[in-house]
Amino acid sequence: MLNYKSNKGGGPTVDFEKAILDGYASDGGLYVPEYLPKVTHSDLNKWKSLSYKALAFEVLSLFIDRSIVSAVELRLLLDECYDTFEIKEVIPFHQLETRDETYIMELFYGPTLSFKDVGMSFMVNLVNFFLKRKSEHLSVIVATTGDTGPAAAHFVAGKSNLDAWVLYPKGLITEAQERQMTTLPHANVHPVGVFNCPEGGDDLDVVISQLYADDAFKNKLKLSSVNSLNWGRIMMQTVHYFYGYLRIAKEVGAPVNMAVPSGGFGNLCAGGLARKMGLPIHYLVVANNQNACLNRIFTQGVFSKQPIHETVSSAIDILVPINFWRFLYFNVEGDTAKIKEWMETFERTGQAIFDAETMAEYRKGFLSKSISDEQTLKTIKNVFDEEHYLLDPHGAVAVAAADQLKAQLGGHPLICLATAHPAKFPETLERLLGADQMPRAAMHSSIEEAKVKCQKNYTCHYSHLHTALKETMNTHWDLHHPA
Ligand SMILES: *Cc1c(COP(=O)(O)O)cnc(C)c1O
Asked: Could you please report the per-residue DSSP string of 107-137?
């Protein structure tokens, strides 16, 4: 049986169900599987023509013991998640005409139009499945830089055994994204708009950590977490790397590059793990915007927190790529003491520096770039003018980074991950292309419908968020879950 433990080495080893329901490990670390399952070329050949859902079943079965989720239950869960996607294939590809063998992997056809739907749908359904089986109820708190919140709110909405408190930095996400959370009528979804966040979405995580550290409160409300520090999201996200590779590679073993717009490193952590499992991805491109912590890690070997830049690719305005710590575990031969020391040094001083040997190990197969807003916008405009395909600002960061790294990437097929639908960023696209030039691809019916609905949310100032939120959550709990 594949069990899970903390990347910091503390606390007990737990089974898959507990790892998912806990979110964080008890020592504040991130859960990792005790070993990575291996995939052979012969497995990959067998999987070559599978649908996304059928492939997900195979990949997840490597991580989830049948005694915890049976084959029938896993199939049902996957049907429930991915039947909510707008397109039957779940993840379609678009080949660009003006670049050699370059494919856009469109990860944004889920109900809230970003790649967060891919991992969150499964995570939330799985959590609810476990809770129902145990007749328990959990509350989750999530912070968002724009896309996690809508996805969490959407999938928690109406689930019998869950409540979601969704915090977002007021004014730092688009109105389209805000309305995806605030126009849901369900009583178990509680969006909280927070004014004056000094460091964007990252500040909200500070308050959330404080609430999780408050044992009496945590136990009373049965707090858990569905943000990307939950292993369930990472595990699910490995699947689209397998799927993309098998769709685009000429044959199993042939090199394929993938470029990924990155902030928290949840998506790329999954890609890096898929490769370590045996998927022959050639290079993974770390595409950062001006918030370039990952770029510093991959080019200088320094994990450091710097002041936030507000950019047009706001979903990756992330200062601390928390999932890098998880990935690191697999690059130091499981030396949890080292990870613990680096994580604690970073928490204490705002910086951790990796030794040359460690850096050489985690850099294998990665290239990295930080892209300015100017370059992002130019890429959207060029691709649109030249071939009438509309990239969202995040997909554009990936394409721009791959363009700049062309010489190093070599002439292999390239997959750029497009992580959001352009309709989530109308202000930026209208400014760039002109309001009267907006193509149909810049609109989506769900975004249009949300514009004419009432909004329902709490608001709060950052300076008293901790006290205010605790009080509101307590009161809500007492009203709805009387002892
Ligand atoms: C969350 C998000 C990303 C970044 O993913 P990470 O796993 O945090 O690196 C990229 N693009 C969009 C649109 C997102 O919502």
From this structure: ---STTSBTHHHHHHHHHHHHHHHHHHHT--
